[in-house]
Each structure stands twice: as C-alpha cells, then as structure tokens.
Amino acid sequence: MASATGIPETHSANQGRGEEEPLLGRAGDASQQEDQGLQFNFVIGTAVIAQVGIWILAATIWASVFVQPLMLFSAHPLLNSAGILLTTQAILLLQPTHTPKQKKQGTNIHAVLNITSILTLIAALVIIEYNKIKHSGAHFESPHAILGLITYILFFIQAIIGIAQYYTPGLFGSTEYAKSIYKYHRMSGYLLLTLSFATIAAATQTAFNKNVLHIQLWAVIVASVITLVGVLPRIKKQKLGL
C-alpha cells in the first residue's frame, strides 16, 4: 500500500513481524496460528525441548521421593517441583499468543496456572516450616533455605503484580500505563524461573538430600538448562520492548 507521496508504507507490516519475531529464529516460528487452540502452544517451536527438560526435572525429584518411605517432609519437594512445573507450563502457554483474542484467553489460563502454582508453593513452605518447628530445626540457614525464601516471596509479588496489571489496571493509574510495564513482568518471570532452578540445585547440597533423597546436582543442572534452552528462544522481542 502506498502513501500519498507514492512511497510504500511498511511500518504496520514491520510491526506485525516484530510482534511475532522470537528471540531466536524467524517471525512466526513460535507464534500461535489463527486456527490453532491454546493447547498447541505447549509444543510450538522449541517448547518440546522445554517440556523434555521440565518433565525430566520433575520426574527426577518425584522418583527420588517415592523410592523412600513417605513422610510429611516428602510433600515439600513434591509440591515445590509441581509448582515450578506449573509455572513453566504457564509461560509456554502464553508465549506464542499475539492476537487480542489469543492474548485474552492465554492470559486467563496463564493466571489460573500461576495461581495454582503459588498455592502449591505456599503449601510447600507451610509444610517445611511446620516440620522445622516440630523437630526444633534451624530456619533459613542453608543457601537452599535462604534462596527458597527469596524465591517464595518473589513468586508471590510476581503473581500479585501480574494479576493487578491485567485485571485491575486502574491501580496503576491507567490501562495504558499498566500495559506499558507488562515487559517488566515478563522479564522478571524469566529471571524468577531461572532462580527457581538455582534453588532446586541448592537443595541437592542439603544434608537431607545427600543422606536420603540422593538427587544429583548434575541432573538438576542438565534438566534446568534443557528447559531454559526450550523457553528462552521463544521470547518475543517486541513483548520485552526490544
């Protein structure tokens, strides 16, 4: 389409390509098609790699827990890993959306998955604290415990801000301003996922894991890296303001 000067207008077309351009790859490589349901977003592009990584991580933790006699503490790693699994699915679901309808549907399910994740993480925190109190254990002394507390707090803040931005934008002054800072919510989400993997890695160095669960540090690192290799290339540049 030409302008009044006869020069072709490319601005809107470039915007469309930018909206669908992932961090790695070509425009559309990680985009939900118009006729596709949201369920396909879990496997579009490099999502398959992310699924392999996060399910290996979850399976590694669950297998290590279930081969031992179950106790109250067993729920702590099970719930935490389930929470991170849900968070990863919430990210993978929303990443490929780009039309208003897709974004609305995707955000609603993204919120449900993340709220469920937060509830499982809160339950995991309550269980470990009850267990510590019951056995007169030390609180928040190990690197894993400190990282875990920071991760729990940041997850809660991330969820509250994300829900407020989308469902109650008036709290930020206007809908336009709330939308303008979506990119920071997205950035912090990816950083928080990475922090979660670091917290799990730190858990492998605790006395309980070394003496009972025997989850290997290398296994956690490999599974975490595989997950990030699948998640990060699907990041949309425009959604991060790049």
Strand content: under 5%
Q: Secondary-structure element sequence?
A: HHHHHHHHH
Largest sheet geometry: none
Distance between the termini: 26 Å
Residues in helix, %:
55-70%
- What global shape is seen? globular
Structural class: mainly alpha
Mean pLDDT: 89
The total count of strands amounts to 0
Number of helices: 9
Describe the structure.
- α5 (143-167) runs antiparallel to α7.
- Helix content is 66%, strand content 0%.
- The radius of gyration is 20 Å and the shape is globular.
- It has helices at 11-20, 47-66, 75-94, 100-134, 143-167, 175-180, 182-203, 207-213, 217-231.
- The model is unreliable at 1-18 (pLDDT under 50).
- The protein is mostly helical and 242 residues long.
- It is built from nine helices and no strands.
Topology:
Layout: H1 11-20, H2 47-66, H3 75-94, H4 100-134, H5 143-167, H6 175-180, H7 182-203, H8 207-213, H9 217-231
Helix pairs in contact: 2-3, 2-9, 3-4, 3-7, 4-5, 5-7, 7-9
Give keywords:
9 helices; mainly alpha; 242 residues; single chain; 66% helix; disordered N terminus
